[in-house]
Amino acid sequence: MAGERWREAPLDSLTETPITYGVVKPGGHDDATGVKFIRAGDIANGRILVEQLRTVTRRVSAQYARTLLRGGELLVSLVGNPGQVAIAPASLKDANIARQVGLVRLNAGVDTRFVKYFLLSPAGQGSLGAHSRGSVQQVINLRDLKTVKIPLPPLSEQRRIAHILGTLDDKIELNRRMNRTLESMARSIFKSWFVDFDPVRAKAAGQPPPGLKPELAALFPDAFQDSELGQIPKGWRVGRVDDLAHINARTLGRRDTLGIIDYVEISEVMRGEVGTITRYTRGEEPSRARRCLQHGDTVLSTVRPDRGAYFLTLYPTESLIASTGFAVLTPKDGNWAFLHAATTQPGFGEELGRLADGGAYPAIRAEVVGGRELPIPECPQLTAAFDRVAQPLFLKANANRRLCSTLAALRDTLLPKLISGELRVPDAERIVGRVV
User: Fold this and answer.
1) What is the C-alpha separation between 147 and 127, in angstroms, rounded?
2) Which residues, 6 or more positions from 374, have their beta carbon under 8 angstroms from its beta carbon?
3) What Cα–Cα distance (Å) separates residue 72 from each residue in 75, 88, 106, 168?
4) Who's near 400: CB < 8 A, 6+ residues apart?
5) pLDDT digits (tens, 9 = 90+) for 330-339
6) 329 forms bridges with which residues in the sheet?
7) Of 214, 276, 360, 410, which sits most exposed with the smallest number of CB within 10 A?
8) pTM of the model
9) What is the DSSP string of 87-109?
């Protein structure tokens, strides 16, 4: 064990400044003029979900100047899902944190990444979990966080361990950035063709659509017509999502012979990324585990639909089952890239959000998703042409996600062995060198 090989020290003895938390009463604010603001729910899977950060006013943030980030601090969630840990990236310099987040500035004698990885290890999570309190909402008190014991190998070994694990995380993050680029390319093409109608506008102005081969450009009309959605390309129609897709086509029943369920919950999904998939023996799964998935399905949350909880299902296992809180859209014509891009455009989710009702968790019925109107080309060759361009981009992103899962599994296997001293650093370096 680590304690037998290395000395241990309480976390608060390793800090440059006292461990503390941030803004107590942020108030209602969220616009580009404010200060980015990290809540407990913004920390997951060892990183900060930068894409979902909200803001507080500069006046409120200034009252908590002690927690303005420099970049490089360790952040620990204290409430809700306590024990989530991440390091503040340099890009969040001058951002602030909520009271639900503990701020740990380590001194120069300890490697911040090593401490992060220890706290994410089973031993570290066990230490943090032992201090969580509350029967309804779990909480880690700041005074308890300060007492968590950290193993301390020599600083050079801390850095080598952190480098090995960080190499895997860096590769995972590189793939995530690549995915954002790939999917942004597909969405940009969709927006140009089917939202902004750029090729139609070019032809209406007597110009060839830039960047399109003549045979593809010929599929676009050269004029507009009025519709209940405003002007749309001539010859197109206003249709509904359920013209393009079956809604919740397959539901898990008692007669299904699955022995295991790999369950996707709404809270684990954000903008195409699926976090933890929980495996259950059949019969032990939550009652919400009912939505069967197949290749090409777009899966959208009907709870807080403007949050961006959606993903694309590509080559799933038979055991992959989603919550009934999702609407599953199965394309009728096989053009799954067109359907996915159409129903995950920012404006689509925002409109569903305006239609949602309820208290803390506003929701819509799946039929509302199916009833959303959009302009649809009458020329099927055009939607098929988009899929020929966009499907390879989404498929590459999916392959990257599978690689990320493999790398994350390797990291999670090496992590406790390195932290405990069971696996030597040179051996781990050889293992990682074969896959990165």
Assistant:
1) 10
2) 229, 238, 239, 240, 241, 342
3) 9, 5, 9, 19
4) 175, 176, 178, 179, 182
5) 999 999 999 9
6) 247, 298
7) 360
8) 0.86
9) E--GGGTT-EEBTTEEEE-B-TT
